[in-house]
């Protein structure tokens, strides 16, 4: 025997120690790999949760937000189904219902209407229990527990062939720690085998975190929605205030808003011509809508007697009554003077010829007063355009005088009456016109004081520019060309179109569309209105579209 090649006890033990070390190392490596994989998976889930939180914080539409919450919760827990309830009126109301296996998608922005009645807040119902107690419930198998009444899910399974198994229900707490909703996930699945498994403790913790983020996002979305509703209520209150002050301008504001949005919609859908690339986002449409509703907010300061001035002499009342009484007084004085003269003639034995002459003179004077009264009544109407001859006649009448009861000489017409009756077109003087035009400057000043959000920051510029002209001769700022925002140019067209077609103005009749189009084109030729917008308004028959949409009982505002 070769001793040298015969292993000693020590030599034979060494391979066994090596084998044990190798197994230990293998075990340790396996544990390390498993822990690393777990840490990596958990880290990935936490990162995903963080990403979800950021995504949720940027969504303000409540339906979209609720749908996203369930989608994301199911996504990172591999849940086959999910339901989201909101606590309302001491019940749980279904907001989102999803089930991939059954291809069910209800609620939210993309789903069908949910037909299920609200869930009563009874502790026997697992979701109601979670809402009442504010604690999570994790059930491996709903068929293997008697903690809650699962009659409903079991009936659902029987009718659909579905198998409800693992369930995770977590409360949704807002910043005040109040439970505002419940997130329920069903049937977690192993992504490798697609077998239904229990929701792990990790998923439970992460879902609770997600639910808390979601609750805050929901609260924020509701708060923003409430603020939006509050702001819209404010806008409508202001429009109502103007409406109550003057039904004429109140109707005008609503109609201009509707007509403006109709025209914006036509532009948005135009696929050819100058405006083929001009579109509006929902936020831009909302901003334009608010601007249109607020474009005449400055009229709260406009005197009612000017806004509703139907006659040239009208103020708080129509001063034509003063002139009529004055002329009636003069007529009575003429009659009285004639009677007194006749008595004197008779007392002095005058012949019939003189009496006849006196009667003729008295009659002629009375006829002249009658003619003056009719002439002034005609001049008081705003529909007539006054020529130079008519103005000369008014000045002539204003220079006539009479003696009042106090033996004071008085004019037939005061300077103020002459100024108002001499208005060539319409019913307001230049001073009154400037007061009316001042409403645009007041609108701009009022709106500039409102701290609008980023999405509404252009409202003052849009609303304040609806009387600006392309040639720079508009008001209140005298902007010209591209200095005027597109929305301001658009509103200038719709504002004038509405004013021309309006049937509720006390000082004019509604004009037919052919006349309106002719006036709009004339204003465009004079570079007062944007020519492209005027032609689009006419060619696309925007006014007729507006009439069909809003004047036939289909007003969406």
CATH class of the largest domain: Mainly Alpha
Based on the coordinates given, report the CATH architecture of the largest domain.
Orthogonal Bundle
- Biggest sheet character: 8 strands, antiparallel
- Strand tally, please? 10
Helical fraction equals: 55-70%
Strand content: 5-15%
What attributes characterize this protein structure?
10 strands; 557 residues; two-stranded antiparallel sheet; 4 domains; 56% helix; elongated; Beta-Lactamase; single chain; 10% strand
Task: Describe the model.
The protein has 557 residues and is of the alpha+beta class. It has four domains: 44 residues; 166 residues, Beta-Lactamase; 180 residues, Hypothetical protein af1432; 108 residues. Helices cover 56% and strands 10% of the residues. Helix 1 packs antiparallel against helix 2, helix 15 packs antiparallel against helix 16 and helix 16 runs antiparallel to helix 17. The radius of gyration is 42 Å and the shape is elongated. The chain starts with 8 loop residues before the first helix and ends in a 7-residue tail after the last helix. The N terminus and C terminus are likely disordered.
Give a summary of the structure in a few sentences.
The protein is an alpha+beta fold. It is 56% helix and 10% strand.
Ordered list of secondary-structure elements with their pairings:
Blueprint: H1 9-57, H2 62-77, E1 79-88, E2 91-99, E3 104-107, E4 119-120, H3 126-133, E5 137-139, H4 151-160, E6 167-173, E7 179-189, E8 196-197, H5 201-245, H6 247-268, H7 282-293, H8 304-307, H9 320-347, H10 352-379, H11 388-398, E9 401-403, E10 409-411, H12 415-421, H13 430-448, H14 459-464, H15 486-501, H16 513-525, H17 531-539, H18 542-550
Antiparallel strand pairs: 1-2, 1-7, 2-3, 2-4, 5-6, 6-7, 7-8, 9-10
């Amino acid at each position: 025997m070769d001793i040298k090649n015969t292993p000693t006890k020590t030599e034979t033990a060494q391979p066994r120690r090596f084998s044990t070390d190798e197994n230990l190392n293998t075990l340790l490596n396996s544990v390390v790999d498993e822990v690393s994989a777990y840490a990596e998976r958990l880290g990935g889930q936490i990162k995903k949760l963080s990403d979800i939180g950021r995504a949720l914080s940027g969504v303000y539409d409540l339906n979209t937000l609720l749908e996203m919450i369930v989608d994301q919760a199911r996504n990172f827990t591999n849940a086959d189904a999910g339901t989201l309830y909101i606590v309302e009126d001491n019940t749980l109301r279904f907001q989102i219902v999803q089930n991939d296996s059954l291809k069910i998608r209800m609620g939210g922005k993309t789903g069908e209407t949910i037909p299920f009645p609200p869930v009563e807040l009874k502790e026997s119902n697992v979701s109601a229990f979670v809402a009442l107690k504010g604690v999570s419930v994790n059930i491996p198998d709903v068929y293997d527990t008697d903690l809650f009444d699962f009659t409903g899910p079991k009936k659902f399974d029987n009718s659909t062939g579905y198998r409800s198994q693992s369930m995770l229900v977590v409360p949704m707490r807002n910043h005040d720690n109040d439970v505002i909703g419940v997130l329920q996930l069903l049937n977690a699945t192993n992504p490798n085998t697609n077998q239904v498994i229990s929701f792990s403790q990790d998923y439970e913790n992460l879902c609770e975190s997600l639910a808390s983020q979601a609750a805050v996002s929901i609260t924020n979305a509701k708060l923003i929605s409430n603020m939006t509703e509050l702001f819209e209520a404010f806008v409508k209150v202001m429009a109502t205030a103007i409406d109550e002050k003057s039904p004429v301008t109140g109707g005008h504001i609503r109609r201009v808003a509707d007509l403006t949005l109709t025209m914006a919609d036509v532009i948005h859908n135009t696929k050819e011509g100058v405006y083929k690339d001009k579109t509006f986002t929902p936020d831009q449409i909302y901003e334009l809508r608010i601007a249109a509703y607020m474009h005449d907010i400055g009229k709260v300061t406009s005197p009612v007697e000017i806004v509703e001035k139907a006659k040239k002499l009208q103020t708080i009342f129509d001063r034509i009554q003063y002139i009529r009484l004055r002329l009636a007084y003069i007529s009575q004085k003429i009659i009285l003077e004639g009677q007194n003269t006749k008595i004197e003639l008779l007392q002095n034995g005058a012949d019939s010829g003189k009496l006849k002459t006196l009667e003729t003179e008295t009659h002629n004077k009375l006829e002249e007063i009658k003619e003056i009264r009719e002439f002034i009544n005609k001049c008081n109407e705003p529909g007539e355009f006054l020529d130079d001859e008519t103005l000369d006649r008014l000045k002539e009448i204003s220079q006539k005088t009479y003696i009042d009861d106090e033996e004071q000489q008085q004019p037939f017409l005061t300077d103020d009456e002459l100024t108002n009756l001499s208005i060539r077109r319409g019913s307001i003087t230049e001073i009154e016109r400037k007061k009316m035009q001042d409403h645009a400057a007041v609108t701009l000043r009022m709106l500039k004081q409102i701290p609008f959000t980023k999405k509404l920051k252009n409202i003052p510029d849009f609303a304040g520019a609806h009387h600006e002209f392309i040639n720079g001769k508009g008001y209140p700022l005298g902007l010209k060309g591209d200095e005027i925002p597109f929305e301001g140019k658009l509103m200038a067209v719709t504002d004038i179109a509405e004013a021309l077609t309006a049937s509720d103005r006390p000082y004019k009749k509604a004009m037919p569309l052919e006349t309106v189009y002719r006036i709009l084109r004339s204003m465009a030729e004079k570079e007062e209105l944007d020519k492209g917008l005027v032609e689009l308004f006419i060619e696309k028959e925007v006014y007729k579209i507006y009439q069909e949409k809003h004047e036939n009982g289909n007003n969406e505002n």
